[in-house]
Design a protein that fits this description.
- With 432 residues, the chain is mostly helical.
- 72% of the residues lie in helices and 0% in strands.
- It has helices at 19-37, 43-50, 54-62, 66-82, 84-103, 108-126, 129-136, 142-149, 152-171, 173-183, 187-194, 206-218, 221-249, 256-280, 285-305, 314-329, 331-340, 350-379, 385-399, 427-430.
- Helix 3 (54-62) packs antiparallel against helix 18, helix 13 packs antiparallel against helix 17 and helix 15 runs antiparallel to helix 19 (385-399).
Amino acid sequence: MKPTPLGELRPSGGAATSDGVWLVVLAAGVAAAMHIWKLPGALALVRDDLSMTLVEAGLLVGVIQAASIAAGLPVALAGEVLGLRRMLVLGLVLLSAGSLLGAVSPGTVLLLASRSVEGVGFLLAVVGAPALIRHVAPPGRLSVALAGWATFHGAASLIGLAAGALVLQAAGWRLWWLVMAVVTLVPVPFILARVPADGPARAAGWRGSVRKVRRTVAAVRPWITGIVFACYTAQWMALMGFLPSIYQSLGLIGVWPGLLSAAVGGANAIGAVAAGPLLQRGIAERRIVLWTFLAMAATSWATFAVHWEDLANGFVLQLLLVAVFSAAGGLVPAALTRYSVTIAPPGGSIPAVLGLTQQIFNVGNFAGPLVIAALATSSGGWHATWWLTCGLSALGVALLPALSGPGPKPRARRCTEAPDLPGEAPEHCRHG
């Protein structure tokens, strides 16, 4: 059967909007995010092989986010014009190419360049995915689908760190990069078979898309949402990016640093899944985020401020605290992603909201590892880590009142106006 253009879908719960469609998009997101998580477990091997300093390692951990910092909105605009499915497939291809380039890198500079290519691919793959899921998920399952999408980082960290720990022990980091180049392309045939095809590229609609992006950028709420999101991503990425190194500094060897870090990352996915039922019950996103930040602050302080190495079974208790930190944190992306798809201003664009928030919260992804590396270097250990995590949680809580109040009400639109997604009719035209 020929794929149905996005504009011809109806949210009627038919085959085109089955759970299988959005699950394919989720699988692509997990494959894309595994490129972020293939590095932490390999970081010690990469540093030894290429003679990198700790700060250079922090830059390597964060540089994959540089494309998202610079190009979130341009990519959202490209999604408006070219189509979200095309953008998703192109992102996976670039991720595969970047991983191949990294596998043959003789030094730090080329490896950083390869990670930058992966960053562009990652951005293309994920920035429009929530908007695509919003369109293809069955209406009664939207909160569950978006909460499911919020698990992609946690699931990728679980799979990437665990699989990486095994491959790295057997073959080294360069083969792991080659494996990831192949794995990334696995979802592509399923995307082409299951995800509805984009309509024709709408070069003529570029001007209208620019106008929608401009209206979105002029609104305050997407900016605040992105900053609150960054308060979460900066601390979670900083901790997870160096967690294998932290465990190695405690004397763990072999596969254990990677496997334990994978378990902590997987706990994040559990938190994201738990957000779905909470949202379905009508609990406000802001309330979920508030309690999550408080839990992250408390657990991160207890994890790093206390000298657990001096206590019996202290390592086990510290591991449990880190797992709770990660699991609680998983509620934030689920809640804020659900919130983000509702706050496009009148005449604005949902992909533009997602692109802008992606651009902002990836500043946190980029800066978090650098700041935590600098703290560890200046303090001579990881005990100062809680300064960063608690400070970011406090900032996130302080910004939450700016997100209060109902979302913007869409103005009435003519059926001839530009849609929110490529090929999509305005909401009132689709439903008569």
